[in-house]
Specification:
This protein is an alpha+beta fold. It has six helices and seven strands. It starts with 9 loop residues before the first helix and ends with a strand.
Length: 197
Amino acid sequence: MAVIRNDVTARAARRLERLVSEEPPFFSPHALPWHIEDYLGALRATGSPPDHRLGLLWTFAEPLPLIEEFQLVWSGTSEGKSLLDRFGDAMPASLVDIGFRQSSDLWEPWCVALIGDQIASIAETVRRGPGGAEVGVDTAKDFRGRGLAAATTMGWSSHDDLKGLTLFYSTGRENRSSQRVTDRLGLRFVGSTFAVL
């Protein structure tokens, strides 16, 4: 499957569609697109030098059992509302450091893990469609390496608002720590992804 942005010229889009139709599936985590240079060349001809990313994609077989050692809080609950009310418009510095400037930066449905009264890790919905949703996970720098990413991802997968959806987890090929989370959770590898930006 391929998605082509609307700012790509019609001619380049036709060429990309033809190349994609000839592309075998990326079943191996180490596979490269057969036509990688052709994709980049087609987009380079439109004016701007393209950048690209290679990623990996997994699915959840079912909602995962929770890790009981961490305190989890979900969006859509009274605890989640109280947590956001406590921060108001200003997120703590540990979260600002990883890109969360205000509470609206948390995309629902989400699950967070608390250490004391601090948000240590966040699993949020970065993409959602009629039949599926994808998780994005961030852990504050001071709390990494403790299993919090796995805990919040487990919590996210059990959120009531995600019931009946196919759940996805993706990451870049170079992100080994994120791939360790998929191993710990026993997610099912689907294939590789390729994006030209």
